[in-house]
Amino acid sequence: xxxxxxxxxxxxxxxxxxxxADDAALRDKAKSAGLLPIPPGVPEVANNPxxxxxxxxxxxxxxxxxxxxxxxxSCNTCHNLGMGGDDNLPTSVGHGWQQGPRNSPTVLNAxxxxxxxxxxxxxxxxxxAKGPVQAGVEMANLPENVVVTLKSMPEYVDRFGRAxxxxxxxxxxxxxxxxxxxxxxxxxxxxxxxxxxxxxNDAAMTDAQKQGLDLYIERGCSACHAGINFGGQDYFPFGLxxxxxxxxxxxxxxxxxxxxxxxxxEYVFRAAPLRNIALTAPYFHSGQIWDLTxxxxxxxxxxxxxxxxxxxxxxxxxxxxxxxxxxxRIEYPILPVETAETPRPDLSTLPLKxxxx
Amino acid sequence: xxxxxxxxxxxxxxxxxxxxADDAALRDKAKSAGLLPIPPGVPEVANNPxxxxxxxxxxxxxxxxxxxxxxxxSCNTCHNLGMGGDDNLPTSVGHGWQQGPRNSPTVLNAxxxxxxxxxxxxxxxxxxAKGPVQAGVEMANLPENVVVTLKSMPEYVDRFGRAxxxxxxxxxxxxxxxxxxxxxxxxxxxxxxxxxxxxxNDAAMTDAQKQGLDLYIERGCSACHAGINFGGQDYFPFGLxxxxxxxxxxxxxxxxxxxxxxxxxEYVFRAAPLRNIALTAPYFHSGQIWDLTxxxxxxxxxxxxxxxxxxxxxxxxxxxxxxxxxxxRIEYPILPVETAETPRPDLSTLPLKxxxx
Lengths: 357, 357
Known about the structure:
Strand content of chain A: under 5%
Shape of chain A: globular
Largest sheet of chain A: 2 strands, antiparallel
Largest interface: A-B, 42 and 42 residues
Oligomer: homodimer
Mean pLDDT of chain A: 92
Number of strands of chain A: 2
Number of helices of chain A: 13
């Protein structure tokens, strides 16, 4: 009986140390693969010091449909902060019920991307924020009309003045974008099971998630989807090994080629960031795949040239679920009141003005 | 010198007592006219006990665009809680960019209305909530599809279970409407200058607002726009004295006649509730008047048969601004995650399904 207890105790100790050793080794492996936790604090961005005034103003602008020509569409329409920071549509619906060409990327943790948009055509969030406001298929507005709209509301004038002190003319399209960037910088999702685990809490991920992480690295996913944001850092041809079907990779969308004009950039896209990926179906720039396991399998075939079998894909998906962090808790803003000078909503769809991208 | 001081002191006392007497008299007059403050606490509604679980669920549903067929339109799209509880459009934009027939009424304080919609066709908020979800020009969904959508998300199933305990099948279209009603019941705006003033704080309204209130009663506005919500209590022909032009009163919209079929209900509408009216331009069921002073003048001519001159209209508008209360501070809800069983968004506009009203 004593012997049996001793054996059990030794076994338990061995199992425990084995588990610890496994976690420690896997943690080293993950770090070596460049998989990083979300750093504490509010990230810094270039040329835009983050202040409380700017973040509060940006929160208003983010939710204000009057940035659109119609007065119907806000940033939050396509980057819904209650739905993982995107709209859960294949491609977004914009002005006049037009459907845009690409799947809406999440705004959550977007500050950690090296560049913005699927083709990286905006260097940062303040540059990005100007795009959809002007795009004819999105908010269809003109910068000068946005400025007239904002200047027509005394509360906005006051808030821009406080967010951009010492500027003679603070209500500008550029400052609108800077305020939105300041708000978006706060939209990070720490505290995911992966973050807790990589910081040393072995119990934060399940065994299946740990196996999935190991496979994620072994199969090569982390070659493109690494960094704080598990992607968003660099550009790769979609179909590096084998081009997927036209449903997933529509031939008319040549990706980064449209930005650079360089032949080698045909069908090149920014590696999608994978944080909160379990919240943001459907997947890929075309938004045609709703099932995450299927998306992982497509990646195996198209990018890695390896058949990831169903069991492996499911384990990787288990791990991807460990990338869902604490969603931002936002107070819905009370927006400034319109005045007689506020431009009227323009619902007309012909001719579309401000065709952007 | 002493005499001068004495005279001044007496004058000040007289002025003060005069002001108090004026306020007290005006307060009595306002109460006699049926103008009431927002009562403290959460209002009760019939057949729907308000619980924290139900309110929280209702908040999610109110902001969830997946109640619409497209996955694009939520209750908050047309009843924006950051914009006075409406959309600041002449008439709302719905499924397929269709424009609805009538101006979106505010959801704020709607619990105090005797019935819902411009024609009062819904007895209460839970009945009202079912309308836009099914209306082809609004959310264009079908009740059975809504239930499938809600049942596809485990978090909703769990929350319906807790909001409607002891029900064998809590996820129903009716319970969706009850939860939305429970949330909407909390959307009241106490603490307006009028409310503070009627409760005894003379300083809460300006002199101009008090003059405006007096005119509001004297000219007869309070005959239709009274009660807690300054309207929303009864039905009146628009153009009681003189029918306004077809731009303001489109001949094809016969109002309550479409509900009752009674000839005397032609062009009859529910008197608009006037709380927070300064936040909810444009005005009238047609949404064609953007200027509140002009709206007051139209009312004078159409309903009262009296020319309210511009100075009087401006004073009445000053008073109407005193009806802007504390706007509800709402945490933007994190919505349940979709699953493989969640119906896909249906963006198609032909054939429209679920044509309601």
